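1st attempt posting a full record on here, be nice pls
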Amino acid sequence: MSEKILFQCDYNEGAHPKVLERIVATNMEQTVGYGEDSYCAQAADKIRKACGDESLAVHFLVGGTQTNVTVIDTALRSHQGVLCAVTGHINVHETGAVEACGHKVLGLPSEDGKLTAAQVEEAYQGHIHNDSFEHMVQPKMVYISNPTELGTIYSKAELAALSEVCRRNGLYLFMDGARLGYGLVAPDNDLTLNDIAKLCDVFYIGGTKVGALFGEAVVISNEELKKDFRYFIKQKGGMLAKGRLLGVQFDVLFTDNLYFEISKHAIQMAEVLRGAFEEKGYPYLVPNRTNQIFVIMPDEALAKLAERFDYCYDHRVDDTHSAVRFCTSWATKEENVQALKSEVINGI
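the predicted structure (as tokens):
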């Protein structure tokens, strides 16, 4: 066990106690496999209710990479690719998983982790009006994450604009929601699950980083993508034989608003840390109000912090400063946050 206090990601801990309690309580029950049990059905019903749409298809997959690959491969033909921010998770942190399955990731420049409707429009129009269009990968899907890899979030107006461009041009809009809970409870957020379900063709609600041991809930509104989706889950390795373990977890997370309540804790802890960095005068790489804090600090101060705390290194800014990420979660202990706050303020 590490002696350091870990702030480098939001999956350092296991699962929320209520999730574990329910898994233990149901452990010896017999259920059918592969997500066709009553717990998965109950969880899916609760998610549809939270999204305000009973027509939504809901599927449970084991992890984020399997989810991204499965959704993208389901939607695209072999000559088609997916537009995303150059910093997007599928472009940077999944070892080329999407491209290994035969679909090119088409990265677009972004300083804040987000894509704009204008960028998508320009990319699509640039393709269809290119004389050599058939020699190039055809954009067919737009991938975004909320929060993004830089902790920023989309406003309702931004998501609506993206949705309009995608639907007008026949593109699928896919939102990676690995940290969705943290985005939806951020102080500056104006999106709801209902909005996301209406504006996206498909999105997922992250469990791995928000209270579950593992697992993501894929929510599909587009009828084209609903067809045969379970075949793709199985083919891409995302289908769990003991699927009820996923259903049990999401059933608990979507009971009595637990998913959002535990997400609020992460935001509260992050706000305490922001206060410390701001008091010290450290600038942000990209400002945000979610659970990921990207701050630029002197290397000397970071070396001192590293004696007690783990953080995620991002990149070098200049000869004496680096950008790093501190991450809180549903399980972050207040005493650990106070210890880091004190070290930041009183350190070098």
